[in-house]
Fold FAD-binding FR-type domain-containing protein.
Amino acid sequence: MRPQVARAQKLASAPSRCLRPTTAPKRAFAHTARARQHQQVPHYEPPSPKDSKGNDARLSRFSKILGVSIGVAAAFGYSVYKHKKANGGAGGAASVGEDGFVKYRIAGREEVSSTCAIFTLRPIAGGKGVDLAAAEGGERAIRSVLFKQPQLQIARAYTLLPPEPGQAADELRFLIRKERGGEVSGYLHRLEAGAEVEVRGPNAEYVLPERVGKVVFLAGGTGIAPALQAAKAVAGEADVHVLWANRRREDCEGGKSDTVSAGASWSEMFAGWWSPFSTPGKEGKATDAAMVARPKGEIVRRLEVLKREGAGRVAVDYFVDDEDAFIRPIDATTLVRASFSPEAKPEGKNIMFVSGPDGFIKLWAGPKDWQNGKEVQGPLGGVLSKLDLRDWEVVKL
Ligand SMILES: Cc1cc2nc3c(=O)[nH]c(=O)nc-3n(C[C@H](O)[C@H](O)[C@H](O)COP(=O)(O)OP(=O)(O)OC[C@H]3O[C@@H](n4cnc5c(N)ncnc54)[C@H](O)[C@@H]3O)c2cc1C
């Protein structure tokens, strides 16, 4: 999911067509008005002609225009009334723009690391939020929404974090990384609590099938957000194994791996995998004990809640480049074939998700494709295409 320029341009170009501001006509109008002011042409009113019935033609034309104007105003008033009603009253009408973007307020911002924060959004007072149930697949869908950058009129997708216990139904939460030089992520990180933002959606990135056997998530950075959604959706009904790679420990503070020791690098566990985040040659791996002693980061805490909800069927392993524990040479087939819970449904679908920055996805599963202005999965490439994944479906998010 990480922004590469090609992706950024494509994402920007699609929505920008419908979001382009209407500055040009205003400028044209200003020009004409100014020109008129400087015109010193005397104004001449001809005598008013009569129609065939002897009426003042200008008057009858005026009454026709008046009638049409009243009709148009009434129709407009009715459509505004209908729009307001559909959006839950006066506040609702103001919350949804013509381009379908809905106004929210940043109700909270929780720093997860020096580059990542969890944003909590609430619809503006009296307004209605986006209809989450409208996404195809409902609760089984991995959902994202578009955030608008109003000055540049561009939009970017961000994945919803699954709701926490006690979270209001119309509240939305996101894990957003501030990309260096990133237009939309930079804009969002500059906003203060209480500021207005506009979002549109939801979009279903993937709908989990009814019967899921096992799920393996290769998540890089903020690619953990769809993993959280998927793990929540199938908690207790399928085996879920999340492999989460980060550049720095600060993004997954306090996270202790379930199956990979912090002291062991990936290379000791597997052969054939490599992380695009890798910074080879760095020394100084933290020990498991030291890891547990550290306070837990917010995403780590949420993963642990999911592990409890998953009743022993959710496992998480953490990989930090700076600790030389990056994903590199491994035997992926071991992970794919191994079953860590006896309840795994043999008849259920086995899915391997690869989610994260574009480079991460490309490396593991090959790049996504663009067809008719839409991003599609594209053929399986990268490391996974060389492995025997048997009947596993690979999904790029
Ligand atoms: C379905 C989906 C879900 C996503 N979910 C999340 C999520 O939950 N959380 C999250 O943080 N992200 C998520 N993303 C990524 C997100 O949509 C954005 O791509 C990301 O935030 C970067 O957008 P930006 O506008 O900030 O950066 P952009 O302005 O697009 O820039 C991206 C990068 O390219 C560089 N760049 C830009 N222009 C140039 C140039 N001319 N030359 C060289 N370099 C350049 C910038 O410096 C920056 O590092 C998701 C993406 C998708 C497709």
